[in-house]
Write a structure and sequence with these properties.
Layout: E1 2-4, E2 7-19, E3 22-29, E4 32-34, E5 41-45, H1 55-77, H2 79-86, H3 97-113, H4 118-144, H5 149-177
Antiparallel strand pairs: 1-2, 2-3, 2-5, 3-4
Length: about 180
């Protein structure tokens, strides 16, 4: 064992795989099979923190990640067309800044949902659920204040549907696989 800033570490050989330009490093050490990293060796802390590989959660996270990236890119790049499709005048008093900002937010959340580390994916799903529920409430309130009905229905359906899929999707995927 070596010592790095007071944290015991173990350097173990690893196997590298590549996916979407990211290199996955799987290591077998005395603390189990883990981790994500780069290069020919992986540094594993002596704490031996091991993440459970949950394929149902990964599948849901990947679907949500791709969807968020596509929707985010659409709203960030084609804001005027999205506003027009929803029946909202463009640009509004914000000059289209908010829809672009939310688009960028969704791109970042989508990328994080595709992250190879299950801890990052799980945290992203949870953060996404919270943000989507807040978005649904804000859109519903905006509908009370004059947001066109079509825009409100689509907004609540997208936000609420994504939150529900993130929350219940892994269980649903497992149930469907076990039939």
């Amino acid at each position: 064992m070596a010592d790095l800033s007071g944290v015991p570490i173990e350097v173990v050989p690893s196997i590298n795989r590549s996916f979407l330009g990211l290199t996955r490093t799987t290591s077998i050490g005395k603390f189990g099979r883990y981790s994500w990293g780069y290069g020919k060796v992986t540094i594993v802390t002596a704490l031996g923190i091991q993440q459970q590989d949950n394929s149902a959660e990964r599948a849901v996270s990947q679907a949500i990640g791709v969807g968020r990236i596509l929707w985010g890119a659409t709203t960030a790049i084609a804001s005027k067309q999205v506003y027009n499709a929803l029946g909202i005048a463009y640009p509004g008093s914000d000059l289209g800044v908010w829809i672009k900002a939310f688009g960028v937010r969704d791109i970042v959340l989508g990328a994080a949902a595709l992250h190879p580390d299950s801890t990052v994916r799980r945290a992203t799903l949870r953060a996404g659920i919270a943000m989507d529920l807040v978005d649904a409430v804000v859109v519903a309130d905006a509908a009370r204040r004059g947001l066109p009905r079509k825009a409100a229905m689509i907004g609540v359906a997208l936000a609420g549907g994504t939150a529900a899929f993130a929350a219940f999707g892994p269980t649903l995927v497992r149930a469907l696989r076990n039939q």
